[in-house]
């Protein structure tokens, strides 16, 4: 039986938040509403939790993006720079994932061994409240099987995972989300901004 907890798109009740935090602390996987679609959250610093997430998504070929609650939390996992600082000040919170050089605390499993990590402060208040309450970065990969379309309702998420043996541990149901494109992705590790993926925020390279 799937563990489903109703919430609103703008607020996560304290009881639901406590359950989500407990699930994450135990290495579990939580489905939650992001600013673009439903996402899968695990502790981004836990090799074991990341491994479980890869099994659920059937994903091995792409690094996992991360959300943080603040710039202070970002600096625990990544090295900032002037290019990134300008973008952060202008567009965060919002659908902009910025690629930084990672710090040693970031497990290789999260980035598939790459020296970089993609991070954003999400526009979704629920997502921000979740990562703030947890106190550590969380993954923000889409709640779907690798290579399939994003899911904007929990019914679609449940349908996609129902036949799998490995499934998320907790589902935060915020109803049907607005179909916003996935976040813009930019790389700020070089001398110039490099647009990796176009999205809702348009940035000149």
Content-based structural category: alpha/beta
Principal-axis shape equals globular
Report the top-level CATH class.
Answer: Alpha Beta
CATH topology: DHBP synthase
Largest sheet: 7 strands, mixed
Tally of contiguous helical segments: 7
Query: Hey, roughly how much beta strand do the residues contain?
Result: 15-25%
One letter per element, helices H and strands E, the order comes to: EHEEHEHEHEHEHEEHEEE
| Mean pLDDT across every amino acid position | 95
How many structural units, i.e. domains?
A: 1
- Poorly predicted residue ranges: none
Spatial separation of the terminal alpha carbons: 48 Å
Radius of gyration computed on alpha carbons: 16 Å
CATH architecture: Alpha-Beta Complex
Give the % helix. 25-40%
The CATH superfamily title? DHBP synthase
Extended strand count: 12
Subcellular location: Cytoplasm
Keywords: ATP-binding, Cytoplasm, Nucleotide-binding, Nucleotidyltransferase, Transferase, tRNA processing
EC number: 2.7.7.87
Domain YrdC-like: 14-201
């Amino acid at each position: 039986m799937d563990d489903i907890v109703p919430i609103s798109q703008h607020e996560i009740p304290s009881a639901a938040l406590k359950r989500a935090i407990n699930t994450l602390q135990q290495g579990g996987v939580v489905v939650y509403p992001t600013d673009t679609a439903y996402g899968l959250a695990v502790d981004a610093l836990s090799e074991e939790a990341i491994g479980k997430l890869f099994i659920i998504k059937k994903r091995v070929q792409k690094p996992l993006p991360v959300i943080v609650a603040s710039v202070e939390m970002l600096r625990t996992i990544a090295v900032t720079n002037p290019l990134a600082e300008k973008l952060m000040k202008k567009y965060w919170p919002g659908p902009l994932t910025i690629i930084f050089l990672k710090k040693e605390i970031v497990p290789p499993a999260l980035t598939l061994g790459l020296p970089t990590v993609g991070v954003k402060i999400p526009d979704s208040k629920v997502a921000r409240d979740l990562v703030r309450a947890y106190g550590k970065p969380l993954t923000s990969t889409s709640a779907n099987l690798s290579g399939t379309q994003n899911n904007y309702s929990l019914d679609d998420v449940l349908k996609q995972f129902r036949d799998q043996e490995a499934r998320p541990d907790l589902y935060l149901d915020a109803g049907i989300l607005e179909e916003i494109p996935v976040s813009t992705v930019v790389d700020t590790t070089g001398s110039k901004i490099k647009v990796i993926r176009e999205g809702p925020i348009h940035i000149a390279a």
